[in-house]
Amino acid sequence: MANEQTDKAQDLEQEQIEQTQTDAEHHAEAGIEDLKAHISKLEESLKLEKARAANAIYEAEKVKERLEREAEAAKKFALEKFTKGLLDSVDNLERAIAAAGEEKTPLLEGIELTLKSLLTTLEKHGVIAVDTQNGFNAEIHQAVGIDPQAKAGEIGNVLQKGYTLSGRLLRPAMVTVGQ
């Protein structure tokens, strides 16, 4: 009887061990499935975050490029108002030279050298006089009157020179045009 009880106890113990192993295997399988699902979620989350990071980098590059373009344009045209003010001085020096006539005096030579120096400095910074030799162009010339001696579409007299700054019109040339 003692052997029977011992056998029963061993059988019961063996069944419990087998049950525990079966439960552990089921639990392990369930745990593996949970881990696989969790890994899948993490991979999807990683893909989303990578896409967001790539988008943020792309946007930052676009902002950087835009700011560089704007800074370049600002540098290029920052002197626009200042240059327009200098053009009045250029006009006044040219009027003084025209008023002096043909007589060469030291004062006139000084005015001419000052004008030449000012124009050279303006050219170094991208300020160029508008062409008035190749006919009327409404984009760079402002017609303020009709010149009866000029041919149709040709510029008769230049009343005030026009200038551009780095290709942008600062001031149109004021001209008279033939009919």
UniProtKB/TrEMBL annotation:
GO biological process: protein folding
Domain of life the protein comes from: Bacteria
Major site of localization recorded for this protein: cytoplasm
Name of this chain's protein: Protein GrpE
Biased composition (Basic and acidic residues): 1-11
Coiled-coil stretches: none
Keyword tags: Chaperone, Cytoplasm, Stress response
Signal peptide as annotated in the record: none
GO function term, MF aspect, one: protein-folding chaperone binding
PROSITE patterns, per database record: GRPE
Residue span of region Disordered: 1-29
Gene symbol of the encoding locus: grpE
One term under GO cellular component: cytosol
Location relative to the cell: Cytoplasm
